[in-house]
Amino acid sequence: MSPAIANTPLVRARNVHKSFGPLEVLKGIDLDVASGEVVTILGPSGSGKSTFLRCINHLESINQGLIEVDGEQIGYRLQKGRLDKLPNRAIAAQRRKIGMVFQQFNLYPHMTALENVIEAPVGVHGQNSKEARRYATELLARVGLSEKVNSYPRQLSGGQQQRVAIARALAIQPKLLLFDEPTSALDPELVGEVLTTMRDLASQGLTMIVVTHEIGFAREAADRVVFMDDGSVVEVGPPEEVISRPQHPRTRSFLSRFI
Asked: Residues 125, 132: contact at Cβ < 8 Å?
C-alpha cells in the first residue's frame, strides 16, 4: 500500500454546513478520522454534535461541504460544481459501511435479541440466514449476552438492550461505527456495562466516532477528543490535552462542570 493511500482518512469532513430552516446548526465542520481511530465528540446540548453524526451516514442531508467515508462522498455526487443527491438505493449501499447506535435502543419488541441482530443482514442485505445467525451469536457473545440470545427486549435491562443494539450495528460488518450518546437513556447503574463494551470495541481497533457526555470514557478510550460549541469545532487533540489542559475558554468552562 502506498503511503498516500495508507494516510487517507477513513472519514473526511470538509466545510460541512447544515441548517434547519433559518437555524444554522453546523457552521463549517472540518474533521478527519483515521482508520482504527476512536474519536469522541464533547460539547453542550445544542452544539450540533448529534446532527453532525447523523450527517455522516446521511440521516440528515448537508447544505454545503462534503463528507467522505472510505473515499466515497456520502449522499451526493459532485457534478459540474454542484452537489447532486444520490438515489436512495445508492445511499443505502453506502450505509452498509456505517453502523450506528442511537440514544434509544429501537429494538423490535416482537423479535428476540438474535432476531433483532440478524434483521438487517438477512432482511435488508440478503445474507444467508444460517451464516447471519452464526455471526449474530458470536456478536452477542462479544457484548456479553450469550445467555440472552432468545430473550425479547422486554426481558432485558436497558443496558442489555443497548448492548443488543451495539451487536446489531456490528452485524453489517461496518468500517465505521457511530455512537450518538449511547448511555444517555440509561439509569446510572447500567451505564458502566455499556461503556465496558465500547472500551472493548475500541481496544479491538474498530473505527468509532462517539458523541458522549461520559468524560471518563473519552479520557480512557479515545485517541482524540473533539470539543464542539455552537455548530463549530472549537478544539481537537489527544484526551490528555483537551480534557486535562484545554486551551479554549469555552472548553475549560464546559469541562469544569465535570472535573
From this structure: no
